[in-house]
Amino acid sequence: MNKYSIFNAVQENDFHDIETCLSAERRNFLKNDIIIRSTDTNNNIGIINKGLAFLLSISEDGETSIIDYYEKGNIFGKIFTPESNVNLYYIVAKENCEITFFDYEKLISCCTQNCEKHGIIISSIVADSFRRCQMHIDILSCRSIRRKLSAYFKYMKEQKHSDRFDLPISLSDLADYISVDRSAMMRELRKMKNEGLITAQGSKITVISL
Fold this sequence. Notes:
- This protein is of the alpha+beta class and 210 residues long.
- The protein is 36% helix and 27% strand.
- It has six helices and eleven strands.
- Strands 1-8-3-6 form a four-stranded antiparallel β-sheet. Strands 2-7-4-5 form a four-stranded antiparallel β-sheet. The chain has a three-stranded antiparallel β-sheet with strand order 9-11-10.
- α3 runs antiparallel to α4 (145-160).
- The mean pLDDT is 85.
């Protein structure tokens, strides 16, 4: 389980109580379905129950970039997407997804029962959104491909509580996420393997010495 999953703070069996308290709605999306656009008028907050979703940016010339990705237990919403008159931002299902939606205004208001679990959701939103933003900034600020890969792998090691982990996204998507050329990244990965810093078999990574 991801270290920053909401389901580390709230038992999945208790999550139904929160959904009832906040009049949440569960919805299913197929792969490539658009979940949220930055132009949407609602302020829904989504929590991934199953699947994987990407926050994408489209520039004026049509170039698409991966800004963030969301796994089980991660929280997302329009309020976390950048405000821009230049780029269009949207969240798309990378694979089939089941998502619980809360109304943001209702979420930040005290519920009639003033329940503790309600507060846990709010705390998780703040912590998760800040951590994800800071992690990506830290990675992108690295000046070389190796340093970017090393920073990402160290974050993954911390999240998964293990030196061994499966990459949640493909290598092509990883190159996009850390903003490097895929071919150059693959060459750097081979060098890191040859130097005994990591082992890599497809999406399975083991950190040996970084």
